[in-house]
């Protein structure tokens, strides 16, 4: 029987076929799924901020795009999956606050998506699907068997990417 592995905010985890992995509360945060079409394992990280270099004395590496993605890759490598075989699906990065002007707060979602794409490109991981931006929150569920990412948002039909 399949289990549902939960990933908290600023957290990461891995799951094994046939389990599902999920995270809730993706507003300006971005959920990143790393998977391989044939591997038994996949993983998810829920990042809150673009760069660990912007915050001093923060020990939670999963909170940031640069270090969270790197740590998830290492977790999958421990299970025998080559980083060069990984693909990614991403969701989130919404503009949750309607702010006038170009404030830092208003652009966190955009900055997160940009940082995630840069980190994945640095590791040569291809993004196969994404549902990012807009102005609403998301919950994502990745099915490790089908490799489909379900994106749920209040008042909207589920998207499968």
Explained architecture:
This protein is α+β, with helices and mostly antiparallel strands. Helix content is 18%, strand content 34%. The protein has 2 helices and 10 strands, in the order E-E-E-E-E-H-E-H-E-E-E-E. It has helices at residues 65-78, 108-122; strands at 4-6, 11-16, 20-26, 30-35, 41-47, 87-92, 126-132, 138-143, 148-152, 159-160. A 5-stranded mixed sheet has the order 1-3-8-9-10, with no helix packed on it. A 5-stranded mixed sheet has the order 2-5-4-6-7, covered by helices on one side. It is globular. The mean pLDDT is 93.
How would you summarize what this structure contains?
The chain has helices at 65-78, 108-122, and strands at 4-6, 11-16, 20-26, 30-35, 41-47, 87-92, 126-132, 138-143, 148-152, 159-160.
H-E order? EEEEEHEHEEEE
Contiguous uncertain segments of 5+ residues: none
Mean pLDDT: 93
The helix content is 10-25%
- Beta percentage is 25-35%
How many beta-strand runs?
Answer: 10
Question: Helices, strands, pairings?
Answer:
Layout (H helix, E strand, L loop, with lengths): L3 E3 L4 E6 L3 E7 L3 E6 L5 E7 L17 H14 L8 E6 L15 H15 L3 E7 L5 E6 L4 E5 L6 E2 L1
Parallel strand pairs: 1-3, 6-7
Antiparallel strand pairs: 2-5, 3-8, 4-5, 4-6, 8-9, 9-10
Helix pairs in contact: 1-2
